[in-house]
């Protein structure tokens, strides 16, 4: 598989994992987060993942996508660990969605600056969609920050749980090194600078902050995962068909 396809697979796996976590928790948090449609957000992530799997020729129907998980070893699955660690906390899920959406939006914006790059067509196709997603997840986070049932301390704790995993955005994997050498990816310092600017503006409004933890964490996109990985993949295989019948049709 070429470096471009491996990068898109990394994005697809990450969106699939987070989409399933959102769908799994939509019922538990519906009474508290009634104005935040976790299920619809999760469905959008699953739909986006399916489009990326199709782009890298890993299937466009439910069964062929499931087969990729049955056949792949853990080191071949390159999702971000940000979306892998389990949670039943709706605040965590809102924070994770915002962090992932802001990252993907920055990538697409920077890819448009390189009309000769291998991701230029991707950016043209998906930038508006990712802009809408970032707008929605920003509004969701700010809405949550202003609800009486969500104190600043609770929201900050959610950020503290998620923030250490964002370091993985800027750790260079083998396939990313190939893309960087060919100038198909912007320098990671540029990605990080733009991403931090986006995140800090929203965090300032929400009265929260990203705080370094010094935690020693695995990096899923390098093929290393948390101890929850195998359980989570089994859950994907069990639940994907259930969700995809209604949410991924078309």
Key terms for this structure?
250 residues, mainly alpha, Ferritin, 9 helices, disordered C terminus
Explained architecture:
With 250 residues, the chain is mainly alpha-helical. It has one domain: Ferritin, core subunit, four-helix bundle (Ferritin), CATH 1.20.1260. Helix content is 62%, strand content 0%. The protein contains 9 helices and no strands. The longest helix has 26 residues, at 120-145. Mean pLDDT is 83; it is low at 245-250.
Distance between the termini: 27 Å
CATH topology-level name: Ferritin
The portion of residues assigned to helices is: 55-70%
Report the uncertain regions. 245-250
What is the general shape? globular
CATH class: Mainly Alpha
Number of strands: 0
Specify the number of helices: 9
Tally the structural domains. 1
Radius of gyration: 17 Å
Helix-strand topology string: HHHHHHHHH
Q: State the CATH superfamily name.
A: Ferritin, core subunit, four-helix bundle
């Amino acid at each position: 598989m070429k470096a471009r396809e491996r990068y898109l697979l990394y994005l697809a796996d990450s969106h699939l994992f987070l989409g399933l976590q959102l769908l799994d928790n939509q019922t538990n948090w519906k009474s508290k987060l009634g104005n935040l449609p976790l299920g619809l957000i999760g469905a959008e992530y699953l739909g986006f993942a399916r489009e990326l799997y199709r782009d890298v020729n890993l299937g466009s129907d439910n069964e062929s996508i499931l087969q990729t998980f049955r056949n792949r070893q853990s080191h071949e699955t390159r999702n971000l660990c940000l979306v892998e660690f389990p949670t039943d906390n709706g605040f965590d899920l809102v924070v994770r969605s915002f962090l992932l959406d802001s990252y993907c939006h920055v990538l697409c914006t920077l890819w448009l600056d390189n009309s000769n790059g291998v991701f230029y067509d991707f950016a043209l196709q998906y930038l508006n969609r990712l802009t809408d997603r970032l707008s929605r997840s920003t509004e969701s986070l700010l809405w949550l920050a202003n609800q009486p049932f969500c104190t600043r301390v609770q929201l900050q704790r959610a950020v503290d749980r998620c923030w250490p995993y964002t370091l993985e955005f800027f750790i260079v994997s083998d396939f990313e090194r190939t893309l960087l050498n060919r100038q198909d990816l912007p320098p990671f310092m540029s990605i990080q600078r733009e991403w931090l600017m986006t995140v800090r503006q929203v965090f300032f409004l929400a009265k929260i902050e990203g705080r370094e933890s010094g935690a020693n964490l695995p990096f899923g996109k390098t093929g290393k995962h948390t101890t929850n990985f195998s359980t989570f993949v089994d859950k994907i295989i069990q639940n994907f068909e259930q969700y995809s019948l209604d949410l991924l049709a078309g």
